[in-house]
Amino acid sequence: MPHLKLATVVLPCLLAAGLTLASTAADVKVPKTSTVIGFNKDIRPILADNCITCHGPDSAARQANLRLDRLDGLVAKRILVPGNPGASKLMQRINAHGVLQMPPASSQRVISREQKAKLADWIRAGANYEPHWAYQPIQNPKPLKVAGNPIDVYINSEIAKRKLVKSVAASKGEWLRRVTLDLTGLPPSDAEVNAFIADSSPKAKASVVDRLLASPAFGEHTAVAWLDIARYGDSYGYQSDQLSPTWPFRDWVVRAFNANMPYDQFIINQIAGDLRPDATVETKLGTTFQRLHRMTNEGGSVAEEWRMEGVADRVRTTTTAFLGLTFECARCHDHKFDPIKQRDFYAMASFVNNVDEYGLYNQSDIVPTPSLLIPTLEQERAIDRAQKRVSALEGLLSERQMAQQAGNRTLIPGRPGLTARYRLDERNGTSLPNSAPGFTEAATAPLGLTSTKGFKGDALQLNGDNALSLGGSARIARHVPHTVGMWIFDERVDDEQMVVFHGSAGTDVGFHGGDVTIKAGRVTARMYRHWPGNAIAVETKHRIRAKEWTHLTVTYDGSSKAAGYRIYINGIPQETNIVRDHIWKGTGTHPINVGERFRERGFRGGKVDEIEIYNRALTASEVSWMSRGIAAETPRTLNEIAPKDVVAYLAAQDVSLDAMRKELQDARFAVAAAEDSVREVLAMEEMPGVRPTYVLARGAYDAPKTADQLVGRTVPAFLSPMRASKPNRFDLAKWMVSKDNPLAARVAVNRFWMQLFGRGIVETAEDFGVQGSRPTHPELLDWLASDFRDHNWDVKRLLKMIALSDAYGRTSNVSKLQRQLDPENKFFARGPSGRLSAEQIRDVALSVAGLLDRKMGGPPVSPYQPGDLWRETNSMSPAYRESVGTDLYRRSIYSVWKRTSPMVNMIAFDAATREVCTARRPSTSTPLQAFVLMNDVQFAEAARVFAENVLSLSGVDGDNRNRLNQMFKTATGRQADAIELKALNNLLDDQLKYFASKPDDAKLVAAVGKHPIKANIGRDIVAAWTMVAQAVLNSDACVWKR
Amino acid sequence: MTEFDPLQMTRRHFLGSASLGLGALGLAESGVQAAGIPRKAAKAKRVIYLFQSGGPAHIDLYDEKPLLRKEHGNQLPSSVIGRQRLTAMSGNQASLPMAGSAFDFADYGKSKMRMSSLLPNIGGIADDICLVRSMWTEAINHDPAMTFFQTGSQIAGRPSMGAWVGYGLGSMNKDLPGFVVLVTKGQGDQPLYARLWGSGFLDSRYQGVPFRAGKDPVLYLKNPEGVSPTSRRNVLDTLGVLQRQQSKLSSDPEVDARLAQYELAFRMQTSVPEVTDLSSEPAETFELYGEDARTPGTFAANCVLARRLAEKGVRFIQLYHQGWDHHGDLPGNARYQAKLTDKASAALIIDLKRRGLLDDTLVIWGGEFGRTAYSQGAISKDNYGRDHHPRCFSLWMAGAGMKRGFSYGRTDDYGYNLLDKSGNVITPSKDKFVPGVVHVHDLQATILDQLGIDHHQLTYRNQGRDYRLTDVHGHVVTDLLS
Lengths: 1042, 482
What we know:
The structure holds two protein chains of two kinds. Chain A is an alpha+beta fold. The relative contact order of chain A is 0.12.
């Protein structure tokens, strides 16, 4: 390959990038500035569209062992003979017909004549290859030769090259409205407009930008686009779509932008805020980002399938958000275009899957683990107090017991704490009597459960599908001590986990409470709010024997610790492994059922006999008696009790301690209750060790997992390597923002550029890969990225620089001719313009009307919706409860976002559904938008209140023209011209006349919405002005940024 | 009928989706059609999709299994289930007793199509329909299964079928949306989600527009109380002046495009109430569709409405009827749902046919999966429930381009597995097209084909990839086509 050389300088292809992709629209003529053909701008797109699917990075799909996305592939086997298109196989094959033709006819891909010519020209010129621009290091900026804002230097040079014409500077009013909308999402107030127009100092613009960046509205507005990326919603997003209390993360994003959190820290916190050495609740809250993928609680769901789905979404979102790469494509196979291997996808997954999660959620108020508790100071103190009280009572009780032992050592007949004894020998229909002295609550068994020969007398034959329900007094809960003992016969039909008994509630997607299960002879006792992360559990090391009567006892002391569980087999305390040992909040209090749980694998084929239940944890001695069938008897002398059990036994039979025991139980309940009130949010929390992660064929959760599919934690080879030896998520985060990774900073500055200019320097903000758009200004992008990194990833500084550029400050009003030269304004010769976002449109209307409530943060609010759209097609959904009072007028970022039924008046304006990561919204015009702006009560009311306010203005005497002027200016930031004013005036006259003759209609119009009416103004006048306000609020001048 | 896109493409949008073959576009000014997707001769101009949500039991409706009746109550052999997964609802059941259908089957029509007595009216149109008994899907839970059927992916974020069709073909109508959604009112059962008629990564112009029963058939359609059409007209005229000023100033074509949307909205304020008002329908309509068609929001009323929308040139009419998720008391529940849907479904076909619309309207009737041969929960002599079953189920189509009086595909004697043409049990794979069985993507490919679109070519580039309704799968099932 003597003629082929790698292009030494990769980035400065400031050539006619405009010739690629979109600019081919028929009526657009972009002046050519160069005829030099570049690999990245001209050739790679042709190969990518036509060849790379079969001759690219995807090794499984690769044909003829040929790669055309890389230098080595292109030069092999005379595919390319630089300088000689005729001798190049590439040209031969794309010009061939029949079986040799490439791409084959069956692919339905066609290389156009122009493209073929381009390929030939490129080969003739030496076939210079360039690696994909985005994977190359950020070019160190060259010192600029021209003074001024560097942004303008780059942009002006490109404009000059293309012979485009710069538009003049926007008027002060235009600029102020634009920058205020772009930085805060709100329009400037009249006072702000007047002040700025009056300020003739050279720093006037800079001080406006400083003011806007310091305004809390900045964070609120800037957060919206990020919440699209983070697929933030207030609901879980599938099927019944219960609400999920995720809003602390939304507020975190707002705070981060307002506090100007350095962007590298913003990235680190969202990937691994829990793992940083200086982690706090605040940094951990960033990791909620990783958990905002949707979750389901649909009955019948397979937890592992959905856990994998969540992990895959994490990978997709993380890589789109921070790398601008489309990893998702590599979930099922190697990426077709970018060199992302399928292994890379799962290697990335192995960073973000090492958390103790189940994969499904159960109900709205139980946050699936891992989660983060965010107590207020008060709550923290209350929990602390409650815990101290438990400790104190435990100490006191123990002292009293010791004292007791020294005193009265008389044995009292009876079995202290026995609340139920079911011998299962007698049966009256479905009822089985309780023979515990003083207790009468019978157990019930459906007729489907039959009696069989038992350990003693009859036993109950279980079938796995029916439960024996024990009497009412026996309860399982986190704070309640108990003992359950019984004879069991494990038929061991298979080695799957079976429920022996449980006291819990829920469905097959998750239970909360306690249970005892057997799996291949090993017994597990658990208490949990959400399995597995929020739970205590122990498992026996040894197995019980199958098909043999065995006595099983489980005791629990109410301590909320795994050590509070003891499992006894045939009266012998078992060695156990602690499976989980951290539980918080309540588990509920549940009656006991034996042999079955809803849709779970019951104790099929098993038998149970002689069940006893105690309201305390028995001592080992007592369990031993029970297992030997002498449970009904009382020890005659203390010698029958093991010495270590004596104190506990004496205490147990001492009723004078009952009050204190009750107090302790209540105190333990109080701990759970105090915890219950604490805000809890989905978050990341690393598990010990590393979860083995496999490449899953076709991305299927149940694909075979073999040793050669095991992946380690690595990043794709085409990016810079990660230097940590045993990397975890925190190392991934650090790698992301390291100097070696060129993508994070480029992707970030491109997004902020987009916030102001409406389009990125790379238009496909979500895809910096081979199929994405090329940067229109590669040098500027790199300059911005490098400058951003060098200045501590300072977002506000970056935005200020952009906002103060001449390019941003130009008018967007240009001649048709100018517009045609660059319809999309890719080269920024005119100022940016575009339809406001869904949130902005609503916020602007509320703000103009003086209705906007600027209260920040907190739980989402529910503004006007026609009826209960949530439940209209989803009877499993919670109901939509419209807010009252000022909550109807909060900024749209605070509107509740139900992902299967998002706000219709927002979706109409292209808001993202937030079901998946969205990096860019489209911008459309539809009739539904007209309906919303004209007829939605939210907007109709805004017009009405706006009208009332204009009518109430003091100092505007009775002159309608003055009021119209004021109305127009408030809504649009500029003066109405004569024609506009005349039209508004005509409308007003018409409507005044009309409503004067229709007092009933006027009353209705003037009363729309829940905001109190101003009764001192004539209804007909308000109604007429409301019509005028509607015209103004619907006009381009209000709904568009210009 | 001329092709017209009421949602006028703006230039911004054109340029934003550069991969669509821009050469084919006539650009926005003429407001002609949606994307530059190559077309071929279309047999269907429009689609009416009668989605039966919840998963109707094929064994009780369309696929007779005498063996199950004979073996009623006996354990389903594990060899039949093989390695197929079960849901977590019945997967832990101690026994899986076979459940024979409580309903008799009979031969219907000249084609002697075998169908359940539960659907006598659909039986009556047997000679007009093309019944597929060998549908299969991948998802086993409702949400992913419905999302898969309607968007081609179990994962959210993709455009729905109606959105794809609108994107590919545009609308045929100047004052109604091209994609309308009708939901039977008050059914409960399995939820529906906005994404099922959403536009995914396509833009919001392609979203389905739900028409709701009641006084506000489209959300926000009605003027606020007290605002007369005249006042609205005046406001729009004034808005027109303001817009023209802005247009002069900025020379931005989007200003005019936006004003055109207001005019379309204004027309819709008349056209939508007109089309949704069934009071002008003759008594004979209600004899045909059933008296419940007089009650807005019933499945029957929606079927009448679907016909009216079809007449007006709406391209994609998507009905949803919730209520087929019968885990328990299937006989009672299925009887009830059949009562709500049977007569009107058949009436729609009859009505379209006599109006000459059936020849270019494709009607589809089916749910997201089938139901198990075994009973979920308790089984008795005449009662049982059935769990979800994705491996095989039935669905029928009628009209444009489809064979009539034609049954296709076979399942095994248990109604549990698919059989190939020689009667062997097969494990289907979407990668390998087996004649005789129809994967969801095959169905989608076939629907698009009838609309004159090659499913390979209906693509949209998003995140660097050219997405399709049929992902990288799907085959047109030519066996079904007349």
